[in-house]
Amino acid sequence: xxxxxxxxxxxxxxxxxxxxxxxxxxxxxxxxxxxxxxxxxxxxxxxxxxxxxxxxxxxxxxxxxxxxxxxxxxxxxxxxxxxxxxxxxxxxxxxxxxxxxxxxxxxxxxxxxxxxxxxxxxxxxxxxxxxxxxxxxxxxxxxxxxxxxxxxxxxxxxxxxxxxxxxxxxxxxxxxxxxxxxxxxxxxxxxxxxxxxxxxxxxxxxxxxxxxxxxxxxxxxxxxxxxxxxxxxxxxxxxxxxxxxxxxxxxxxxxxxxxxxxxxxxxxxxxxxxxxxxxxxxxxxxxxxxxxxxxxxxxxxxxxxxxxxxxxxxxxxxxxxxxxxxxxxxxxxxxxxxxxxxxxxxxxxxxxxxxxxxxxxxxxxxxxxxxxxxxxxxxxxxxxxxxxxxxxxxxxxxxxxxxxxxxxxxxxxxxxxxxxxxxxxxxxxxxxxxxxxxxxxxxxxxxxxxxxxxxxxxxxxxxxxxxxxxxxxxxxxxxxxxxxxxxxxxxxxxxxxxxxx
Length: 501
Hints:
- By secondary structure, the protein is α+β, with helices and mostly antiparallel strands.
- It has 2 domains: about 280 residues, 2-Layer Sandwich (Alpha-Beta Plaits); about 140 residues, no CATH class.
- The strands form 2 sheets. Strands 3, 4, 5, 6, 7, 8, 9 and 10 form an 8-stranded mixed β-sheet that branches. The protein has a two-stranded antiparallel ribbon with strand order 1-2.
- The longest helix has about 70 residues.
């Protein structure tokens, strides 16, 4: 039918209804996509504010970074879908911790997380003044870092007790799916092998300070984000954090210390260690909050003051027990034990427990060789005083020095190399002509080289000879123990076969 040259199409009633249903389905899908991908905390904050934040704010927030360490080894034994399910379960557990403390998951990048507290989308600080808000977000970030490490340990052991505290069914299901995969993997290996090798460990770093927070990115790709030095500092803290613990800036520590959180946490760790029968019951405040300098390569090795913090109240015993299992895992096991010694060489509780294990298992760490590697001149003088008697000197050094003492000595050598600053070239003279200026510059550079080559040589020798040879010596002792055990087992098998015949 046409009217004034235009076609008039009469649409049946049922067809109109179909189009309405189609629009309705599309809206439902759009809402489902939004619910699936958009953070609920951000959406609720925008709705509560009555509109999208169009301007960025400079405000004090607390920022954390988390990175999974050692997952590459575990991932080799899983298919891509299994890897995805394990990581989804692990991230679900971490997100539960963040939400419990009021934190906001800013982004996931591979095996790293960034999260923060405070700002306009944090409902906890909405009606607080600046100082009270700072104290609250500092406390919540600190205990979030603690709980992230503890949940990671529970996840490794497929512990289900904490799942009772999680109200989200989807979160619980994601964690249980991951547990099923870890359970299948455990059945495929001896339990000791699984517990020794397939451990997910994390590093956590945290900072606090003024940042710019708001929407960043072009139209159609906006993202709620934060930028500023505290973000960079938090990432630096994570990258240098001890595995199984976390590192914070000195400014963050000062806030925690003033509000009594450090003292409260120290008492808590000692109390928990006492209940578990751990040597950490005697850990001092300075050992729990270990002050350390981090050197920034991108800032010409500028010194950055930080504090590393222990989380596991029975860490020394945990490392000892895992190392005992690793002793049965050949070269890979030996490498992992040596890594523990490198990581915890400043922690006398852990190192003493490992030395106790070595003595119990009759692993012969040649302490005299370690001493000789570090101080060959002194070793030679001591040998002369003992009339060249190597056995006498070996006993003397073994009795006098614990493994921790020798690691302290290694640390002092490293500090002496690290602490020496190279001499810079002399200030340039005024330009009086190409040949004269270049001759002065050549002479200045040569003088600087002559003065610095000793420092450079000592650093090179330490990092390329002393340091690797020190830990190679310890690895050799572990491999020797494994080799001897294999020979004993072969003889026992031979005797058993002969008896059966």
